[in-house]
Write a structure and sequence with these properties.
alpha+beta; RNA Polymerase Alpha Subunit, Chain A, domain 2; DNA polymerase, domain 1; 3 domains
């Protein structure tokens, strides 16, 4: 017996800045594990976040050393910097600095960086300067990304640059349990209880919504494919190739998105995400735009139509 999706209820059991418990029921038997597995995978691997990608410490050429007057060795400092979480509001990358002299304890809030890279855990400890003559000067780069990227993937030939292992995912843990649910006389139903923990750069409910939209995008794409064996459609006339991002003129790049004739809702959504020019828009993929809260299929169609008139397109 097929269930009516109108009967499906999503309940927020409890939620704080970094943890939430959500109940989804009733579900057909077996759907609890199916949905939870897919959501958990996306939550942990596909949501965008910010992390430090590389650092440079004055007077240090490699991580396996110590710094005079600093209580932690370089490896410990790297581990502490890796724990600093950023809420990225722009595209990045962003350059930051951490400089201090004298006896003191350095925390994440001492990092000076663009206002578009907000530090979510300002009290995270980074290093301890042990005497009045101590000195520490660090420059760092913060990037926006998804999932995890190892230091080996970004090895640099620049002298003194130390690449970092970057954990971009804003979701730190996802667990779930599936219990039995009952509707009327039916007792063969599932109740999914999902627990989400984040780094406070995103609310658990927002993370769950974003993960569901990512899966929705994939399923919508799969659902739109022609089934093998169906009557083939006549081939469409070949459209002229769109200009690549690199070939778009500087004049077009500087065009404000407000001149594209977009609906007020789509325009406000883009501008609130610091996308105010065509050049900035052309740096985005479909997935990047879908990651913006409030941006959906209708907005994407508007954007693609407007860019097509300029002979341009979003990044593949």
């Amino acid at each position: 017996m097929v269930m009516d999706l109108k009967d499906l209820k999503i309940k927020k059991e409890k939620e704080t800045k970094n943890s939430g418990v959500f109940i989804i029921e009733p579900l057909p038997s077996g759907y609890g594990v199916t949905l939870a597995t897919a959501l958990r995978r996306v939550l942990l691997s596909s949501l965008p976040g910010g992390a430090i990608s590389e650092i440079r410490i004055q007077g240090v050429s490699h991580p396996f050393t110590t710094i005079k007057g600093v209580g932690e060795d370089v490896v410990e400092i790297l581990m502490n910097l890796k724990k600093v979480r950023f809420q990225i509001r722009g595209d990045g990358p962003f350059e930051g600095t951490l400089e201090a002299k004298g006896k003191k304890e350095l925390k994440a809030k001492d990092i000076k960086i663009s206002s578009e890279a907000v530090i979510a855990n300002p009290d995270a400890k980074i290093a301890t300067l042990t005497d009045k003559s101590s000195k520490l000067s660090v420059s760092l780069v913060v990037e926006r990304g998804v999932g995890y990227r190892s230091a080996e993937e970004r090895e640099s030939d620049k002298v003194g640059v130390i690449p970092m292992d970057s954990i971009f995912s804003p979701v730190t843990n996802v667990s779930f349990t599936v219990e039995g649910a009952r509707v009327g006389r039916r007792t063969d139903l599932d109740k999914l209880i999902i627990n989400i923990t984040t780094d406070e750069t995103i609310k658990p409910s927002e993370a769950l919504e974003a993960a569901a939209k990512i899966l929705q995008g994939y399923f919508a794409r799969i659902g739109g494919l022609e089934v093998a064996g169906k009557k083939e459609k006549a081939p469409k006339a070949k459209e002229p190739e769109k200009e690549s991002v690199a070939e778009v003129s500087e004049e077009v790049r500087k065009t404000p998105v407000s001149d594209l004739g977009l609906s007020p809702r789509t325009l406000n959504t883009l501008e609130n995400s610091s996308i105010k020019s065509v050049g900035r828009l052309l740096q985005k993929t479909d997935e990047d735009l879908f990651d913006i809260k409030g941006f959906g299929e209708a907005g994407l169609k508007e954007v693609n139509k407007a860019l097509k008139k300029l002979g341009a397109a979003l990044r593949e």
